[in-house]
Request: fold
Amino acid sequence: MTSQVSSPAEQADEAVVGEQRKPAGTKDVRRLDRVIIRFAGDSGDGMQLTGDRFTSETASFGNDLSTLPNFPAEIRAPAGTLPGVSSFQLHFADHDILTPGDAPNVLVAMNPAALKANIGDLPRGAEIIVNTDEFTRRAMQKVGYETSPLEDGSLDGYSLHPVPLTTLTVEALKEFDLTRKEAERSKNMFALGLLSWMYHRPTEGTEKFLKSKFAKKPDIAAANIAAFRAGWNFGETTEDFAVSYEIAPATKAFPVGTYRNISGNLALSYGLVAASRQADLPLFLGSYPITPASDILHELSKHKNFGVRTFQAEDEIAGIGAALGAAFGGSLAVTTTSGPGVALKSETIGLAVSLELPLLIVDIQRGGPSTGLPTKTEQADLLQAMYGRNGEAPVPVIAPCTPADCFDAALEAARIALTYRTPVMLLSDGYLANGSEPWRIPELDELPDLTVQFAQGPNHTLEDGSEVFWPYKRDPQTLARPWAIPGTPGLEHRIGGIEKEDGTGNISYAPANHDFMVRTRQAKIDGIEVPDLEVDDPHEAKTLVLGWGSTYGPITAAVRRLRKAGESIAQAHLRHLNPFPGNLGVVLGRYEKVVIPEMNLGQLATLVRAKYLVDAHSYNQVNGMPFKAEQLAKALKEAIDA
Reply:
């Protein structure tokens, strides 16, 4: 869903119109600057769909937002159990925000398991909407409730709203030719309608979505729309909800432009398509399904009209093998995976290093080791990306910092791969991949020119005057070798994993040649042009917090809190992890203390300490969830005071 952002004055006028369009009757309407809502239920209750629809309507309304989907790895986790709880958290505001929020203001709990799994995150006074129909003795005992939390006083510190969601949904759909079980499935739409009323969300987009989603089942579409409207009307008429809330559009958060809500994986997919168009090359994806990267395969398969070819291989090795073959054939080649798949692809990544062909390896990191936590987030693949191959096989590494930034990171990865003829590792993670935020759709003239020149003929003259093609004769500026398309007359050359002779590309076991090639490949990576690191330091602080990847939002939110409290702290965030920005050493040397928060056990800190001999302090978390801003603010305050 897209929305046009105009000037703040025009936005203010639009907000007034929106208020007139959504009258709240005689009930009290309170104005808030932000709110954090969490939908939680069984993994079959449709919480991800509910959260996604609420998010889409919030984006179309013009709020800034950030989301955190959280769900089990199992296709169908045990119903009614704590491991089976699925949740979707949304933070939206009338100003610029950076994280999905630390603690929900509102929890919608569809069953006892959802309540028990999430109650610990709620601050006192938070609103809790519970589906009382699911609070049966058996369901409560399954998660360890000896007495009903709705009746034993344990929720007295919260604003509790008991709502028989299932009963009300079935009653609202009694005119439809549905079984009770079929009618019950729409209870998430009833809850969505209720929350849409509470927070004055638009409804047209959701109804249009339901008609489209169930276009082949119009009765099901009508039933879901009826449940959605019933939830809205329930909020309007019930005595239990005496107040609704308004969060105005974020009039000052966005530059002028056309915006849409976008997830990290979707932004990355669009970035890859844009890169192929800017390079005027066909896009080839060779991939094997793996959580949380599979959405990229799903999305790119929809874009054959842009010359995209997707190949779902039988395994990870076949996927990258096909991609590398496509790179040899002249495509912008991509393979997508997560940490376990990177391990399987490592030999072929090394082959791409040896062949010196452009190849994008997209790693959507998740909790490990081994299968680990497939649906949870982590940043623990950095050292694998840097060193996880046999031999000296250097690879550039970049990392996006927000869901929307995945678009730009894809373009940057393509620029490096195409310019320097090298595989490139792009490290996203589950938090970025599944999370979403507003994204300004760029104009075409804002995109970089990525066009490449293929080798067309001989490039070297022998002593006898004859002209030949040397596949490893390098550009003196980039050290990139020529890219010769198979079938071009006169450009035949050997490929393979055995060491090449400099220039000719012939097989060579000569010690001096191997030493030269190893050092040359390293020099090519070291010489990649990357922008200098920008530092946010308005008060000449003594402490610098350095981050990479998805820690950007929590770190920035924490820094804002500290500065608001009068603390002086500097912030810098790395996109390029290999090579590092040329000024990183100088930046680090300016500060007495350097703190590096990471969702691992200190991998960037290890690299920084080794390269720059800086006593960087790690602050680490490996619980499968992103940092909370308050948690980071406390840790950084302790570092400042130490």
